[in-house]
């Protein structure tokens, strides 16, 4: 069984249930070596909660600089390594993170959270009624992108392009499409970085463009890469979390009733929504030295993949993990990562889900799925590109 699923294939989880597969892996061989074909390297697969958490914490032995997504690592090194926050290691990572944190801390973002709720309410209210609609394209995709664009002070007219490129970059039709989308995003941000450096405002781009690391300003390309990382990091993951959350609520009427009745704490509900959605199947690292994980010897240079989807459904860490329980507490899931690279946008991601839950509970009486949801074809992004639903008001 363990060897039978190809984790490098974007279609694998369209055809196989990841939760069933990883439950078997955890029971039989929780850390295993996955061979690859076509001359590409093999890699380690880490599935148990405790091992995944300790790997995230062991950034000295497991580095991010070569890349953190399996596909990228199998093709070679990440071209943004050492320049973009998520793929930079200590000591530079620490300084770059502190700089970006200045623009993304909860203190700075307080007012942004209010706008999230307004935007979500307007989108949900416009979709209310007996007519089915696609929740993914009609509601979910407009909140995260606009929120990040607000932070970056992106003009309204440019936003549809950014959304298209962002979608293309991660889940484009093919490799060329993804590459073109990434280039468009980078060029766009380099231009903006140059203008904000000359005439700074109080937005995130200006903060990064005028900040210093080890006494030096970042290059325009580094500023652009880190703006791009906010879009990529914050758009897709939040969007798929929202879609998975609505799907989960429609499929669990008891939990939906509890939410509407105000019987669940909104904060615990958000954490369970995140655990349930687990928008990134995995993140990856490269071993910098020989290292033991779950009793297996990892060699320096080996690729190590950490399967969040498995850790978040590990029955040794979560009682009845396949039961949606919006009151689950404690709920120390790894949907937002763990350790030094813990999600920089966690506050925003949570605020978006919290707004969605509160708007739904307030304005919608009945949520119904009206057709099949379409899975995203990916071994990285876990979720649905479309979700036909009907929201009845009440
Ligand atoms: C890092 C998930 C929202 C920006 C991460 C990591 C995860 C994650 C798992 C760790 C990656 C690793 O260890 O290699 C999510 C989820 C979100 C979300 C599930 C929504 C529900 C956001 C938002 C932003 C953002 C809204 C930006 C506005 C980032 C950045 C990093 C990161 C910049 C890199 C941090 C570092 O390397 O120090 N995210 N994220 N994320 N996320 Fe998020």
Question: What's the CATH topology label?
Answer: Cytochrome p450
* CATH class annotation: Mainly Alpha
What fraction strand? Answer: 5-15%
**Tally of helical segments:** 16
Molecules bound to protein: protoporphyrin IX containing FE
How would you write the strand order of the largest sheet?
1-2-10-7-3
* Rg, Cα atoms, Å: 21 Å
Give the SSE order as H and E letters: HHEEHEHHHEHHHHHEEHHHEEEEHHEEEE
Uncertain residue segments: none
Instruction: Indicate the structural class.
Output: alpha+beta
Count the domains.
Answer: 1
Strand count, sense and closure of the main sheet? 5 strands, mixed
Descriptive overview:
It is a single chain. The protein is of the alpha+beta class and 394 residues long. The protein has one domain (12-393): Cytochrome p450. It is 50% helix and 14% strand. The chain contains 16 helices and 14 strands. The chain has helices spanning 12-15, 18-28, 49-57, 70-75, 92-104, 106-127, 135-138, 143-152, 159-171, 175-198, 204-210, 220-251, 253-260, 266-277, 308-311, 346-363; strands at residues 31-34, 43-46, 62-63, 129-134, 212-213, 216-217, 282-287, 291-293, 296-298, 303-307, 364-369, 374-375, 384-386, 388-393. It has a five-stranded mixed β-sheet with strand order 1-2-10-7-3. The chain has a three-stranded antiparallel β-sheet with strand order 4-14-11. A two-stranded antiparallel ribbon has the order 5-6. α8 (143-152) packs antiparallel against α12 (220-251). The longest helix is centred in the middle third of the chain and has 32 residues, at 220-251. It is globular and about 55 Å long. The chain starts with 11 loop residues before the first helix and ends with a strand.
């Amino acid at each position: 069984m363990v060897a039978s699923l190809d984790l490098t294939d974007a279609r694998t989880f369209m055809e196989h249930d990841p939760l069933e597969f990883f439950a078997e892996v955890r029971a039989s061989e929780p850390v295993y070596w996955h061979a690859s074909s076509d001359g590409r390297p093999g890699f380690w697969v880490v599935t148990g909660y405790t091992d995944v958490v300790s790997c995230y914490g062991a950034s000295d032995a497991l580095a991010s600089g070569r890349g953190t997504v399996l596909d990228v690592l199998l093709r070679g090194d990440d071209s943004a390594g050492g320049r973009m926050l998520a793929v930079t290691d200590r000591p530079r990572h620490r300084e770059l993170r502190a700089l970006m944190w200045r623009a993304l801390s909860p203190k700075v973002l307080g007012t942004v959270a209010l706008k999230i709720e307004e935007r979500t309410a307007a989108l949900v209210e416009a979709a209310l009624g007996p007519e089915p609609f696609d929740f993914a394209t009609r509601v979910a995709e407009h909140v995260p992108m606009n929120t990040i664009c607000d932070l970056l002070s992106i003009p309204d007219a440019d936003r549809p392009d950014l959304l298209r490129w962002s979608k293309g970059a991660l889940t484009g039709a093919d490799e060329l499409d993804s590459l073109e989308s990434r280039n468009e995003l980078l060029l766009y941000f380099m231009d903006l970085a140059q203008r904000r450096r000359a005439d700074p405002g109080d937005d995130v781009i200006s903060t990064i463009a005028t900040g210093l690391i080890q006494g030096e300003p970042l290059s325009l390309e580094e500023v652009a890469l880190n703006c791009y990382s906010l879009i990529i990091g914050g758009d897709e993951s939040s969007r798929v979390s929202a879609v998975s959350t609505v799907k989960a609520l429609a499929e669990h009427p008891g939990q939906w009733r509890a939410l509407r009745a105000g019987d669940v704490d909104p904060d615990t509900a958000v954490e369970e929504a995140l655990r349930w959605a687990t928008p990134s199947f995995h993140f990856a690292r490269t071993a910098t030295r020989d290292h033991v994980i779950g009793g297996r010897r990892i060699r320096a240079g080996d690729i190590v993949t950490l399967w969040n989807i498995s850790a978040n459904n590990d029955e040794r860490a979560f009682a009845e993990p396949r039961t949606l329980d919006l009151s689950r507490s404690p709920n120390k899931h790894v949907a937002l990562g763990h350790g030094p690279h813990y999600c920089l946008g966690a506050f925003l991601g949570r605020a978006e889900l919290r707004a969605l839950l509160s708007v739904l509970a307030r304005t919608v009486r009945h949520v119904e799925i009206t057709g099949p949801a379409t899975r995203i074809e990916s071994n990285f992004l876990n979720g649905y590109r479309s979700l036909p639903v009907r929201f009845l008001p009440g």
